[in-house]
Amino acid sequence: QVQLVESGGGLVQAGGSLRLSCVVSGLPWNYSYYDMNWHREAPGKDRELVASISRSGSGTKYADSVKGRFTISRDNAENTLYLQMNNLDPEDTAVYYCQALLPPISYWGQGTQVTVSS
């Protein structure tokens, strides 16, 4: 059974930091074969791709809205994905989801809530 379990969300004041984790288990192939993404979904908005990381971790991409503030990373030995979020803004309030992608198949976690107060 494939499981992606996010953690690390919570309530933080504007300007603060959080580190999200996503522990992955049960994938049909080795974790290192999968590109990994973080998405977020705010109330009343479409799900948004926030950050992506390549299989080896050498390549990363970010949405313009988080560039310079968020850092995606992965530990292939621990089957874990991270998202370091600094200088958080109330606009970052959303449920954050991790995704494991090996086209055409993708797997999703259940999400972790991040709330940033002003």
**Amount of helix:** under 10%
Overall body shape: globular
N-to-C terminal Cα separation, in Å?
Answer: 40 Å
Sheet-strand content, in percent, reads over 45%
Alpha plus pi helix count: 0
Would you write up a description of this structure?
The chain has 118 residues and is an all-beta fold. It has strands at 3-7, 10-13, 18-25, 35-41, 48-53, 60-62, 70-75, 80-85, 94-102, 105-108, 112-117. Strands 2, 4, 5, 6, 9, 10 and 11 form a 7-stranded mixed β-sheet that branches. A 4-stranded antiparallel β-sheet has the order 1-3-8-7, with no helix packed on it. Strand 4 and strand 5 form a beta hairpin. 29% of the residues are buried.
Structure, briefly:
The protein has 118 residues and is mainly beta. It has no helices and eleven strands. The protein has strands at residues 3-7, 10-13, 18-25, 35-41, 48-53, 60-62, 70-75, 80-85, 94-102, 105-108, 112-117.
